[in-house]
Amino acid sequence: MRVLSGIQPTARFHWGNYFGAIQQYIALQGNEQSFYFIADLHALTTVRDAKQLAQNNVDAAIDLLALGLDPNQASLFRQSDVPEVTELMWLLMTVTQFSLLEKCTSYKDKAAKGIAADAGLFTYPVLMAADILLYDSDVVPVGADQIQHLEVTRDIAQRFNSIFDGEHLHLPTARVLQVGAKVPGTDGEKMSKSYGNTIEIFEAEKPLRKKIMSIKTDSLPVEAPKNPETCSIYALYQLFASPVQQAALAERYRAGGMGYGEAKQALFEAAMAYFGPARAKREELVSKPELVEEILQAGAKKARAKGREVLQRVRAACGLGLRNS
Ligand code: ADP
Ligand code: TRP
Hints:
Tyrosyl-Transfer RNA Synthetase; 2 domains; two-stranded parallel ribbon; 7% strand; elongated; binds adenosine-5'-diphosphate; binds tryptophan
């Protein structure tokens, strides 16, 4: 079974990305067949600064490795290191109906806001289909916002197979990540880079404390009993603390006599402890850029070997010759 997923390197990963996606990708990595890639070609539709994108790529790779992505269990690579994907994208585009892409929210939402879309944004789902189909992927873990793109992928694959009369492309299934974990941001709304309310996983200690101290609360005085269930500090604390620690903090909320500052301090300490090992691993990786590059190259090599095989099959299906390199 091949598990595949991609994550865009558009900004540093935040707690929402970790608990909503990255942690679950890592839990699924258990076999040689898993492919995880950094979707830098997709990120080009929004990041238009060469230095920034290059840096984001490095940071994304280091973050994922530090968080537990194990190159002995899964292949990690940059999307742009497998040029076969863009060739497959063209082949898929020739059978993709315009009307199918017009329905995609990735494009439709921006168009509705009057944002001028370029062809990259419009055809974004076809590149994503190529990402998935190039490796005969079986299972694709994604957030709920990406389900539509999986449907488009299946649609394109079916159309290709029907036009060229054969089972050339393998149909994938989506594995929707658990929605239970909607991580709140510093303003209490869903944590998202579009809302400017994020707390980054590898934020330095000082700014991390500052962000945690800025989490919005009600204005109950210290002595008042408080409700942990409606408090974002407590919701975040639950992600990091053991059940015993959670019960202890909930008790202190309800008893009164504890200010939110203290709860924020507890959250800060719990988050530092939780990501402590990953922080140490990250520091080690930052000092070994050659090792990180080697891991990405080895991942790309494995991905390319599979990608070439599938691309040859697809080229043959539509009457193109074999390609040697
Ligand atoms: P952002 O909302 O910051 O732009 P992305 O859309 O790039 O984040 O998120 C990538 C994945 O991370 C999503 O598909 C989703 O699974 C997960 N994710 C992002 N924010 C949250 C959140 N606040 N709570 C839970 N999961 C989240
Ligand atoms: N579009 C996905 C996102 O924004 C990232 C992505 C690109 C992806 N290609 C993929 C995810 C292939 C799964 C499979 O989250």
